[in-house]
């Protein structure tokens, strides 16, 4: 971002008026005017901009996000702000009505020599808006979209207003920018001088070497070295030519000038007499088209080509000039055009032929084939007149199309009267009743609508013979069945399973990324198993599991389990586990629209860790097909083979006491987590994945080797990282009270640093531990300092969830004067020490104790010993041998791999 002095110099250079300068200053100092959210078909999110030092919102990862990448890496862009303050738009509708309203553009952009607003929209959306009102949007002769009312508003300040369409996106460049992003923002050079010299010498010796060859030949270097040199422009690759993830198509040069020379000279050289180009073969006798004139090639030499015009004039062109004109598309082949038109016509003919038509044509050809060769026909059952007719049709088609087979096609399916037998007005009335009576939210029955339809025909004087039958009416409804009909009757959620999935004709952003750790999915689900307490054998219910999955390799990056419903705490722990195991986080994290993912804490944490956050559209489970499939795989492969699983609860009428999962429950939270990790990291990761053709572990390793380990993005899993992931309050800072310290969530915390006069009455950054209310952390003089509660002995080990339950219960008991009652730390501590509170909080404390056992497993310890056993009559008793208990190896747990449910690739 610009400093104040740089901003003032920029204003002077751009020659802004005082009014314009004040407006720019207001926009620069303002927060986004609104929070964006994706629609049913949009993936919204936040991008961590290094240029701006803040997160930038986007409403669509196919429109706004690509434009953000362009702003981030274009050198002409100085600053950009999302969702700037509203501007007033006034224009006249096509009907002559004056329209005026407040409007929020997508971005406000400061360029080197200009400044203004930018609106990003999809091309098809702009076309619809232009049809609706051409006075607001229109496509100019320069093939650029314009908004006259917005441009008039911007002109009064000397600003521009630009409409940016997704048709302007170069998706190859977008993929490459995303691929190199880790290297663009490296704080120090990643490549050693020796590796740089090796790579540069190879490129100098083989100018135009492919990236694939360079990756294999550059001994003593890594793929990170090469990608880093590309990002820092020490070697040149045309990022618009081909994706870097397809290295065999990328050519590497010493610099851009060498690349231009290579294209204009090296590629134009040839030693063959017959030159093959992507468009035309240059051989004598071929006809070509140049500038709408037909020319015939009469001679091809080593250095020149002779062509003859229709008038008989001879034209001589240098061979290199001719080839360049062919490559540029200025010279095309006449024969190719004719063949193209003919092939299109043949294709249309074959598409009209049914399977029976082809079968009949094959039969006819097999009979007349000897006849065509002049031989006698052996089959006497077919009249000679018919044989002559088939031969005649064959010869006619051969002369017209070049393929006599086409004349043998009968097209019986197109013969006869193809029109409907019902009168046109009857069909129109039937369609009207289906549209207005059946396809409504009232969800009327088919027969009820049919009766109304027949009554309407009878009232109109239509005879009974001409009234369609109920069967015909049902067929007409079925013709219209599908997504649109279900939406009209029961809404888009019910119709979601019928919504067509559109495979992209042109690749934009790959659904699963181009490499490991590019895209990661985080999601939660409740596990289908009842668990017991490891100390009291009390049934504590079903746990929740949180997975982080790598989209590229389908590898399970991290797993976390807890009894608490999904919250920011689960997000915090799965991020910690991922960094602990791998040292990395995905570049882009995709989540659903749960409240925990929209929390300020989670958004701030993702921004601090420099990850792009994307929200998949609401009620669109298929956007997380990877995570949903993995949940199903975990259930079928592991959970459903364990005692206490809840499959029987889906048939509640068949459930008896002997098969009740609560009576059969045996597993504890930490033990289940131990084996869940064993399954995820050692069983699932090493089995071949049907969508990959290899195991996730193999795909992950191969992708990392080819596309770089990116070690400079590693996060050290230390105390600083754990403090970084701790939550803070909404304000993030609190004032230091000289006598009481700082107050966080109604609890006061103190440390010796608060005695410093310079710290007293100042505001400090704070963080608290959601799993231990007895401690908190404040940022003083460049380091985090641990603080303790004044009632440490009471709050020690109490979790945030337990405090929330106690606070809620305390408020409930004082609900008669709730407006005057305030929950303070002392009152809360007194309540927590009462016997009555223990009864309220007992189950939560047992669950929290089990969760602490999970923390020990995460840190590498074994699960807690099991102090009970289950007898054959489902009775729980003490386990006398529990002192010597050790968790069995993975091989001792039987998982029936022959009965696994397979989730095909979506």
UniProtKB/TrEMBL annotation:
Molecular function (GO) terms listed? endonuclease activity; nucleic acid binding
Q: Which SUPFAM superfamilies does this entry report, sorted A to Z?
A: Ribonuclease H-like (SSF53098)
Gene Ontology process terms (BP): DNA integration
Sorted alphabetically, the keyword list is: Endonuclease, Hydrolase, Nuclease
Pfam families, alphabetically? Mu-transpos_C (PF09299), rve (PF00665), Tn7_Tnp_TnsA_C (PF08721)
Region called Disordered, residue ranges = 865-890
Name used for this protein in its record = TnsA endonuclease family protein, integrase family protein
Annotated source species? Nostoc cycadae WK-1
